[in-house]
UniProtKB/TrEMBL annotation:
This is ABC transporter substrate-binding protein. It comes from the Bacteria. It holds the Pfam family SBP_bac_5. GO terms for molecular function: peptide transmembrane transporter activity. Residues 80-420 form the Solute-binding protein family domain. One of its GO terms (biological process) is peptide transport. The lineage of its organism: Bacteria, Pseudomonadati, Pseudomonadota, Gammaproteobacteria, Vibrionales. InterPro entries: Peptide/Ni-bd (IPR030678), SBP_5 (IPR039424), SBP_5_dom (IPR000914). It comes from Vibrio ostreae. PANTHER family: MONOACYL PHOSPHATIDYLINOSITOL TETRAMANNOSIDE-BINDING PROTEIN LPQW-RELATED (PTHR30290:SF65), PERIPLASMIC BINDING COMPONENT OF ABC TRANSPORTER (PTHR30290).
Amino acid sequence: MKPLKSWLGLAMSVSLLSGCFDSEQQQPINSENSAQSSRIKLAMLLPPRSGLTPLSDDAFKLSRWSTAETLVILDQEGNLAPALATHWEQLSPTTWRFQLRSDVTFHDHTPLTAKAVVNALSTATSAMPKPRILDGVTLQIRADGEHAVIITSEIPDPLLAQRLTSPQLSILALSAYGENGVINPVLAGTGPFILTGVNGTSSATLDRNPDYWGEPAQAEGIDVSFVPDGLARSSALRTHSADIVEAIPVSQAPLLDQSLIHEVPMPRTNTLYLNTRHGVMQDPAMRAAARDAINRAQIVDNVYEKRADIAQGLLGPALPWAAKLRQPVANPTPAALPEGAHITLATFTDRTELPEVAVYLAQQLTDAGFTVDQVVREYSQIESDALAGQFDAFILSRATVLDSGDPVAYMYSDFSCAGSFNIAQLCQTDIDNALQHAASLPAGPERQQAIMEAERLILASDAAIPMLHERVIQGESERVRAAVRDPRERTLVSNQTYLVSDQQTMQ
């Protein structure tokens, strides 16, 4: 059994760089010490794709804003820590019990109960498609009194509790769940900030939650703008129209005050996915030819201005154990290219660097003998075509441990026969078996070794060619204190984040 730790407000602050004021001269702005607003202006990279439903990647916005919370969270070391659940125990290989906090109120003023948790998690398990953290997983959830739930998996799942840390399994009030699967997170979370309004794909507004179960937020609220254009986001930092800016493009970083930008190593890999089911790339030799054509150093040096790491595998330096356990990959010898081997190379505009990566890759593949057409659109307009296998090659910036702190879920989603995000259309029995073996093991060295064996098989297929591991560049104005620099991209503004006055920044 995991004991309850008396860490007030831990659910929203375990990733913090600092939870304290810098000094007596560095107090948060309030009505007594400044006329300036203490609302944090936040410029974000991607607009909502699915109406901020927690069952999509939009869940990570709700998490980064500290408005929606999960039963348990991951601390800085990747270990489980309490959040809406105070402690938990594994009753059998397939059954876990989670004890809920009794003092939590949703933003609509209804109490956190076992009924609400059962509803939220059952909705996720029955969704079509499921949240990717539940790929290949069947769960049953039932109440055990008013303040506990029992969660049972169809087969033993050693990482069941880790799965529950995914923002896609956030617990929202019963009022959030409408007809026809519509979920509205406004006034429905439990976090230190209340989501009070969403203006389509333009903006969102959050206010401090005065009834938060943990330590109240230092800031009055958050005003979010969705700014897909990288130049515009950078300008927002330069002109003080944003306090925190997500994902400064590497091309803009040298033009900014270097004290305002912070590189965060990410478990994110820029990967070229090749279509193994349709077109030219069905042929393993053609995939190998594409692999050999890629000049990673040229892309890192010229597109990322050396603010990235050349990839040796799918898992990068954010997981230091991966390099130690990686084994050589036996790749097939590429065949001579037939004249005019024609491929379509696609990517999206939302991550500023990717269209430029596409230009370099297209030239490298052309030099190797391919004829290359490029397709570049906004992500919301290209995702469905990519998942349907409409392109021969697709460049994707992919988080590798986003959901559970463990890469098996990402590998299963992207490379198993039943994976919900299988852009490469890959289906190989040996890879599925390796992933199932890794998934059956508890966290620790044996599981890590099994993960690297699965990686070796995936790399040998040449269905995915890892090119580089990214470092996100986060912008923070001089007024910002305790913004969260989170490699897992789960928290950005926490209950500890606040602003100081312009006068205080000069002291």
